[in-house]
Write a structure and sequence with these properties.
Length: about 140
C-alpha cells in the first residue's frame, strides 16, 4: 500500500468511539460529578427523588461509551461495573492517581479482583510488580 491510499478523512462516529484518548484536565472532576449524580439517583438512596430528576445519570454516562461497550463484549457483570466505578471514584477523590501503585495496593483482594475483571486480565493484578503507568491505566475506564 502506498501513502496515497491512506484515507485522511475525519473518523466516523463509530471509529471515534474506539479511539484512545488522554484524560483532559477536567476528566477526574467530571467523573466525580457524574458519579455523584449517579449515586444520588439510585433508588436505595434516601435522598433520591422518586421521579429521578433530569440530571440523573446512568452508569453508562459515568463510565463512557467505550467502557460500556467493552463491558458488554467482555460480559462484565453489573455488580462488577458498579464496584469498578466506585473504586475509580475513590481513586479520583482520595488522590489515588498521584500514586496509583499504592492505591491499588490499598485495595482488598476482592476489589483488586473487580479491577482485574473490569479489564479482562487473565492473571490477578500484582501492584508490587507494576509500573506507575500500568497502575494508572488500570484506574481509567476503557477508551482512555
Amino acid at each position: 500500500m502506498s501513502i496515497q491510499n491512506v484515507n485522511n478523512v475525519t473518523p466516523t462516529a463509530i471509529q471515534q468511539r474506539h479511539l484512545i484518548q488522554s484524560p483532559d484536565a477536567n476528566f477526574f472532576s467530571d467523573f466525580k460529578t457524574a458519579y455523584a449524580h449517579y449515586q444520588s439517583a439510585l433508588p436505595n438512596n434516601p435522598s433520591a427523588d422518586a421521579k429521578q430528576s433530569p440530571s440523573a445519570t446512568s452508569l453508562s454516562d459515568v463510565m463512557g461509551l467505550s467502557y460500556t461497550e467493552m463491558a458488554a463484549v467482555r460480559g462484565t457483570s453489573a455488580n462488577d461495573q458498579t464496584a469498578y466505578a466506585a473504586i475509580l471514584n475513590r481513586a479520583y477523590s482520595q488522590g489515588g492517581m498521584k500514586d496509583p501503585v499504592a492505591f491499588l495496593q490499598s485495595l482488598t483482594p476482592q476489589e483488586q479482583g473487580v479491577v482485574q475483571r473490569a479489564h479482562c486480565l487473565a492473571d490477578p493484578i500484582n501492584p508490587t510488580t507494576m509500573s506507575k503507568e500500568g497502575a494508572y491505566n488500570l484506574l481509567l475506564p476503557d477508551g482512555y
